[in-house]
Request: fold
Amino acid sequence: MARLILRIELDSKVRIGEDAIRLLELVEAKGSISAAARTHGLTFRRAWTVLDEVNRMFKTPAIATQCGGIDGGGARLTDFGREIIDRYRAIESIATCLTADELSALEAAANGP
Amino acid sequence: MARLILRIELDSKVRIGEDAIRLLELVEAKGSISAAARTHGLTFRRAWTVLDEVNRMFKTPAIATQCGGIDGGGARLTDFGREIIDRYRAIESIATCLTADELSALEAAANGP
Reply:
């Protein structure tokens, strides 16, 4: 079945999408940026850059790093970081459910895998 | 206001997004791939590649080129090409309207432009 991949563009023109959300989820699960990066198949540097962009995008940080440098003491999601994930996944779920007929029509017209 | 940017991933894992849709709209308006590319700020080669991907993605072509080579005789949207645009814009509009509360909440938490 065809699926929607969403990015959200804020007024400031910065965008947050599936990659950043998945990284936030992995930081929550793994407790460190390096473990999240490894699981997602990204370099630490790339993961750090994506998460730093998310932290700068909003008034409240999404990720808090503990002492020992950016990853030395681990990293955890803030309450606001959890809120971003929840809102993104809610948007994804609402959008996917309510456009299912249109998505099915496009899939029916598509060449197979 | 925050806005949604959508890509649709088909079962075959190919994706169609805003850039391709905008190019289809511009081919319809301008009647040639080169004029569409110029208006969208893309090279002809890049625009051709994007549109060729769309043509291969579905059982029916979205763009028909007239004699004189790929762009020598101009290009036009097929009925199916128009259908793709209509379905994408319908998905965008439904998804944006029905997730407006979540989008507003994210925008309210964002740093300004």
Remarks:
- Helices of chain A lie at 18-30, 33-40, 44-57, 69-72, 79-98, 100-109.
- The interface with chain B takes residues 1-13, 15, 17, 56-60, 80, 83-84, 87, 90-91, 94-95, 98-99, 102-103, 105-107, 109-113 of chain A (CB under 8 Å).
- The mean pLDDT of chain A is 92.
